[in-house]
Amino acid sequence: MHSNAFKNLWFGQALANMGDVFYIVGLISLVYNLTGSAVYMTAVPLVITFSRFISSMAAPLLLNRTQMRSLIAYSQMGKTFFLCFFLLMLVLNIGNVWFYLVCASIISFLDGWALPARNSYVPFLVKREELMGANGFLSTVDQTIQFSSWALGGILLALLSETNLFIIVILLFLASTFFMLRLPVIPSTTLEVRKVWWQQLGEGWSEVKRRKGLLPVFWIYGLESISGTVWIAAVLYLYVDLKLQRGEEWWGFINSSFFVGLVLASYAIFKFHGFFSKHRHKWLPVCMIVTSGVTFVFAWNKMALLALVLSFVFGLFDQIKNVVLQTYLQESAPPEELGKIYAAEGALTTLLFGLSSVGVGLLLEVLSISTIFSLSALLLLSTLIPVLYLQKNM
């Protein structure tokens, strides 16, 4: 974990993640200023989610033809190019809201290649016994960046303007590209099998089906993607308003408490990765039971302070579960196949989360917020079934 290659990977990805958050902050503000419409604002995350889903589906085609370092670096380069074009149109006041949404779609499409490639890079750069610690460290960095960048992005937007914020994003993307280009070249597999393009698109799914130990992991990811939609911003906003009957600031407090739990869990795994790795078969069912129970109590709770505690506990155990699953996935397949498997996982979770977000919105019209959270808790509890299958292979 102390190699220069691993440092280049995490630092370059941290800069890219910070730039992504700043970009979304600036884009949402720009779209609202151009249209004054909340509908167009909600289109921003929808466009980003859909584009990343398409990108995840197409990733196996690129992974078969492109070296991983090139894939990560060139995707970042492409994002930088389109953002420069985006900024030029903004400065010249030429584009309209649809132009900016199309640019956002292209940038998100390019971004969809980076995460599967990064995660599949990790087993090449660290020892097997260090995988749990490396994933914990990367999660610590990711969550810290996410937690701080939204607040920092809002501050920078208030102090500067959308244009200046996009300039900062371009600089972050350029710096990220520099570090990605310094990654070592990973030798490609010597076995070449000629396949038509539609067969290549399904290679990740074929690997999952062939490696029986990965099927329960994907079942867990799928069920959690559906249940996790109750924690999106819009649903939590309603929870604060209807259940807690508090002001908007408590919406921010609950989100912050959740992210603090994520960061602390990631840091604990990084520091004590040997302990977590040794007992991971015990941690997984415990995390499922705790997150399910916390969600159920959260559903019917009316005390604001208890909501903060529950959100923190959920974030803590949810992140432990994420890192354990991530490590298991990386150990369950050859490193050269991980990119395709991660692409399949990204496509599955992105699609289910997007569809479930729409479904939750429709259910909120006919069911109470407490009932919605209770259904989520039951879904989380049902993940114990694939966990029991998974434990046989751990």
Overall 3D shape: globular
- Counting DSSP E segments of at least 2 residues, the number of strands comes to 0
CATH class of the largest domain, anyone?
Answer: Mainly Alpha
The percent range for strand residues is under 5%
- Going by CATH, what is the homologous superfamily of the largest domain? MFS general substrate transporter like domains
Can you give the helix content as a percent range?
over 70%
Mean pLDDT: 80
End-to-end separation in angstroms reads 23 Å
Total domain count: 2
At CATH's second level, what is the architecture of the largest domain? Up-down Bundle
What is the string of SSEs from the N terminus onward? HHHHHHHHHHHHHHHHH
CATH T-level topology of the largest domain: Growth Hormone, Chain: A
Radius of gyration: 21 Å
* Unreliably modeled segments: 189-201
SSE class: mainly alpha
Main beta sheet strand tally, sense and closure: none
Number of helices: 17
Could you explain the architecture of this structure?
The structure is a single chain. With 394 residues, the chain is an all-alpha fold. 84% of the residues lie in helices and 0% in strands. It folds into 2 domains: 180 residues, MFS general substrate transporter like domains (Growth Hormone, Chain: A); 189 residues, MFS general substrate transporter like domains (Growth Hormone, Chain: A, Up-down Bundle), CATH 1.20.1250.20. Helix 13 packs antiparallel against helix 14. The two termini are 23 Å apart.
